[in-house]
Amino acid sequence: MPTRFVTRPSTSEPGAPDPRLATGETLRWGVVSTGHIAHVVTAQLCALEDAELHAVSSRDAERADAFAREHGARSAYHDDAAGTGVEHLAADDAVDVVYLATPHAQHHAIARTLLEAGKHVLIEKAFAVTAAEAADLAALARARGRFLMEAVWTRFLPVYQAFVDHVAEGAIGTPRWAQADLGMRATFDPDSRLWARDAGGGALLDLAVYPLTWTAAAFGLPSAIAARGVLAENGVDALCTLDVGYPGDGRAQVTVSFTSAHTRSATIGGDAGVVRTLGSLPNPTGFTLTRGDDTREVRAATPAPGYTYQLREVTRCIQRGEFESATMPLRDTLAFMRCFDDARAQLGVRYPNDDAPPPSLR
Ligand SMILES: NC(=O)c1ccc[n+]([C@@H]2O[C@H](COP(=O)([O-])OP(=O)(O)OC[C@H]3O[C@@H](n4cnc5c(N)ncnc54)[C@H](OP(=O)(O)O)[C@@H]3O)[C@@H](O)[C@H]2O)c1
Hints:
The protein is α/β, with parallel strands linked by helices. About 30% of the residues lie in helices and about 25% in strands. The strands form two sheets. It has an eight-stranded mixed beta sheet with strand order 8-9-10-7-11-12-13-14. Strands 3-2-1-4-5-6 form a six-stranded parallel beta sheet, with helices on both faces.
């Protein structure tokens, strides 16, 4: 029987209540960023019974105020002569936990400031730019006894957990190979978050965690990676293919890009069948299971909006005094970050963060 590589979160247990319902005392949240995903996730955060949006921080006063007004935050912090918005938010004793959604290159420095101030932190993917930054944050969170997690929301979706169940219960026999791809056509703009070197741009860091999340359902964590790609004129990867080896004989091929249309799907083949996701890879509607000539569809209801499930996990862990999620452990984040370092070395992609190692390594 194949192994279940991803621990089931409470939100996917049979008969689990709506993830918006409270599981304990109310947590007071801060949000760092006023960008695209910060708006989407904060709206879903505010729907949790036991979440209070306490503060937002931005580099800019007007953006901070507008975000606070829109989502009902009590405090709006911004950069000023006395410090950065992040420093002001970190100094606010009323904030328990912070959702950090800036570009990748800023994740490490900002998360460090927050952890040192005693906040629990949920960091958007990519968790950091380098494996050294990721290891530094994991060590700091453990040393300070604070919760830390990468916001890989897909892991907490009922559809993902149903997919993991099918693979682990032998629906396709022993998994042998996987293929997964994700991407979109994005016009090259060296100043945008997606492409800028000083933002940690490039398809690998932005997208690869999603296909690797699906191949992890079959094989767990990678043991070897071979990367090829196409670089943009500023040296970040526009397209990247990963040939991934796993302990045992499992193999996966992963493609991510900003250059093209994608199937945005994952397929896993075993010696008795094949599973293939339906809908877009980060948030599919279901999957097909094919054995011989028989194909059937499996759908998993997602009654709450998609980001709610990871927000429930963060909340539940903190309420119980747990500093890591068993479903999205730091071990997995560190393993993926080491893969990305390795892949970037093969592609020849370097960022300013590579030349500024974290304090623990200086
Ligand atoms: N989970 C998902 O589905 C999902 C989807 C999209 C993106 N993401 C991730 O979320 C993060 C943000 O992506 P996004 O699309 O929301 O980006 P975005 O719209 O560009 O927003 C990023 C925000 O970060 C702040 N920021 C920008 N540059 C900064 C800097 N140098 N230092 C500090 N703060 C800076 C800005 O807010 P202020 O100007 O107010 O400071 C900006 O609005 C990335 O890690 C990305 O990979 C996740």
